[in-house]
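#struct-pred
JK: can someone run the complex with MU-OXO-diiron? inputs below
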Amino acid sequence: MLSEKMQAAMNKQINAELHSAYIYLSMSAYFESQNLPGAASWMRVQAQEEVVHAMKFFDFIHERLGRVLLAPVDGVPTEWASPLAVFEDAFKHEQKISGMINDLVNLAVDERDHAANSFLMWFVDEQVEEEASADAVVQQLKLVGDSGHALYMFDHELGARQA
Ligand code: FEO
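RT: done, structure tokens with the ligand placed:
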């Protein structure tokens, strides 16, 4: 059974993951408005992954005989200065989520909750990938620079991402 403290922390993480999905959907909508369908699709896939993350916590809480309590999801930005600014925000956001996962691991260790600790290791690994994939796009967009032609080609590449 989950402790009250762990249950509250995991419910907070469900909210953070759903908020992440909402952020990435907003980024997807922004890219649609900029006529960049590949980047819009990349963000849509990312949003779907965030819902999967939220549901992993949702299911784990229930498996541990806890109670899921859904809280309101915060608002999200809707405008960015450039495609690069969007992915820089995505990278920063993933760093923040990694910090939250680390805090959850620390709590699991403090509480000697080995089941929670084992469950959270998947997220520790996932966050390495989440940060790396956002940063890879940031670096590539820096190479693209102001070239409309390069952006057009790169957008096509981003559209190849699958869920
Ligand atoms: Fe679920 Fe992108 O962290």
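RT: quick notes.
The CA atoms of residues 98 and 127 lie 6 Å apart.
The domain at 4-158 is CATH 1.20.1260.10 (Ferritin).
JK: thanks, will look after standup
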